[in-house]
Amino acid sequence: MKRFMKRLFLLSGLFGISWLIFAQSCMTFRKSDREEKAEFAKHNVALTTGTIRVASGRSIHYAQTGNDSLPTLFFIHGSPGSWDAFSAYMKDSQLLKKFRMVSIDRPGFGYSDFGLSEHLDVQSRLISPLFIVLNNHKPRFMAGHSLGGPMVLQLAADNPDSLFSGLVIISGSIDPAEEKPEKWRPWLFKTSLNYLVPGAMRPSNEELWFLKKDLVLLKGKLGRITCPVYFIHGAQDPWVPPANVDYGKKQLVHAAFIRETLIPGANHFIPWTKFNEIRSVLLKLY
User: Fold this and answer.
1) CATH code of residue 270
2) Among 17, 72, 147, 229, whose CB has the most other CB atoms within 10 angstroms?
3) How confident is the model over 121-171, as pLDDT tens digits?
4) Domain count of the chain?
5) With contact defined as beta carbons under 8 Å apart, do 73 and 59 qualify?
């Protein structure tokens, strides 16, 4: 019996160590720039990537396709994720005729200081300098999915009204009343249990806990947004209910206009499952 218990203890220890190592490297939701460039090259699309240094020594990583003389369409991913959530759009021949496209690794994800989560307002301060660096003096648009939706609104509210010509909110979680923060989340990121959480799930867990309070703070800024806003949402989204669209329509009182596309039977993953419907809206931006 003692020998069995020793073996069990040893195996448990080995499993624990193995999981700690595995958790640090799995589920990162990112690929190297070299891998991505090779993948885009297969589609005859040139991909460029870059990293800028911003406040407090932080960095923002991004990827870009398209002609610099065209209007820019910025993509903001959800949680967890990275810029390549929108890779299919950045390769699309129709969109490439109309836009230079830039997809951003939000702070804490991809290659933007991976693992260091931040509140929406801090993320906005870190991302905003990129709009200056990449300014080609053409119209600028933003599209964000899931948590990228409120991120788009935060960025638009925190920057001059003239900066963006249109916003696209895809399955955006923007209504604080619809957020039900799980009370177990702080038990992970505030304790050593966080080391057991794999990859990008760590910063995701933390920012999802922040989100409800962040959305309450964002609510007071939504009146600053004056450009057109387009909502695209799955009618059967179980994670981010369509009620978020109704909230947005009520709060964005100074938007030039609001358009809504509710996709029947669709769930939360419409950037991948409803590509044609979303591309159709993007093509009408400009």
Assistant:
1) 3.40.50.1820
2) 147
3) 999 999 999 999 999 999 999 999 999 999 999 999 999 767 899 999 999
4) 1
5) no
